[in-house]
Structures are given as structure tokens and as C-alpha cells.
Amino acid sequence: AMRKIFWRNNDLIEGEETLMSTIEEINATAQRMFSGTFAKIRENFITIFKDLFMEGDECDLRLEEGVDPLEAKIEIIAKPRGKRPTSIDLLSGGEKTLTAIALLFAIYLVKPSPFCILDEVDAPLDDSNIDRYTRILTKFSKDTQFIVVTHNKRTMESATAMYGVTMEEMGVSKIVTVRFNEDARVRSAAVTG
After folding, report:
1. In whole angstroms, what is the distance from residue 147 CA to residue 120 CA?
2. Which residues have a Cβ under 8 Å from the Cβ of 50 and sit 6 or more positions away?
3. Which of 103, 114, 157, 164 sees the fewest Cβ atoms within 10 Å?
4. Cα-flanking dihedrals φ and ψ of residue 99, to 5°?
5. What is the pTM of this model?
6. At a CB cut-off of 8 Å and minimum separation 6, what does 121 contact?
7. pLDDT in tens, 111-168
8. What is the b/e burial string over 144-160, where b = at least 16 CB atoms within 10 angstroms of the residue's CB?
9. Kind plus residue range of the DSSP H or E element containing 174
10. 120: Cβ–Cβ under 8 A, 6 or more apart, which residues?
11. Is 24 helix (H, G, I), strand (E, B) or coil?
């Protein structure tokens, strides 16, 4: 036999009110958590940007005003000294990349992990910008193990170990490892197969 369920009108109204109250509480919590995280990312972004660029350079992250923070657009402002671009699109390739690196690390620092993989992040950078990039990697490598995929010699020079793939015989790949002595660096590299 089929069971019949009868709902009283008051039960439905009470259930709807409870549901609406729960949704408001979840939204308020999400907004509070997002605002706190955004503030930390913004602070990290400004600090790292100034490390990558120069002290007089300006940057900021701004949320669209008058909109729910969870729905708002995020504006990235980056103004290297001597330039006043109206859009981040007007920066050079290297400047855009360094700005993206600053933002990447700003987000990463909110909840860092023991290791991080960076794949060809340095590809658009020239030598002077590579030096800035490797300085940041060295700074953060005290707490994080970085695995960097790169073809750039200057980036490789800053590593403590290198892993390469070689093909001595056609179709047979071999991993080559080079570990650098911290005191003597390249002079006492040991190659293992």
C-alpha cells in the first residue's frame, strides 16, 4: 500500500525559512573567507612584485566595487616605473610574465606546499628578468622544493640538481642526474646514470 504524506502549510514555510537562512549563512561565510584570502593574496602580490621589479614600481589587485565579492571581477594593476599602461595587455612579454609570476607566488604563499612544479615559466624572459625570477625561486626554496622544467641556461645555473633526458641509442631514453656541491657548485658536479 502507498503511504501518503501530508504536509502542513506551516511545515513548508518553516522548511523554506530554514533553507534560506542556511544559504545566507553559507554566502556570508564564503564572502568572509574570500575577502580574507584576497587580502592576503593582495599583500603578497605587492611584496613579490616589488621584489621582481623595483621599489618605485606600482601594483595592486582590486575587486570590482558594489558587487558581491564572490561575483566581482578582479583587476590586476601593474605599472613598472616610467610606464603608465592603461591595461596589463600593454606591458612587454617579460613584464607580463613577471607580473603573472608575482601573482602565482602571491596565491601560492597563502597555502604553500612542500613542493611546486614550474613548467617553462621562464620561457618569455630575457637574461635580466631570468635573474629576477631565479632570485625569487632561491628565496622561496627555503620552504619549498621547486621542480623547474626549463631550457634556459641561467635558470639551470641556479639549480642545486639537474635531471636531463638523453638518447644515446635511437629510441632508448636515459635519465642523467647532476647534483651540485653547495660550496663549489659547478666545479664539483657529479654525474650519475
Report:
1. 11
2. 57, 59
3. 114
4. -65, -45
5. 0.76
6. 97, 101, 104, 133, 148, 150
7. 988 999 999 999 999 988 999 999 999 999 888 999 999 999 999 988 888 888 888 8
8. eeeebebebebbeebbe
9. strand 172-181
10. 149, 150, 151
11. helix
- How far apart, in Å, are the Cα atoms of 19 and each of 3, 30, 173? 26, 16, 59
Q: At 32, list the grid cell.
A: 568572509
- CA 63 to chain CA centroid, Å, is 18
Residue 7: left (phi > 0), alpha (psi -120 to 50), or beta?
beta
Q: Virtual CA dihedral for 103, 108, 111, 113, nearest 10 degrees?
A: 180
Q: 29: left (phi > 0), else alpha (psi -120 to 50), else beta?
A: alpha
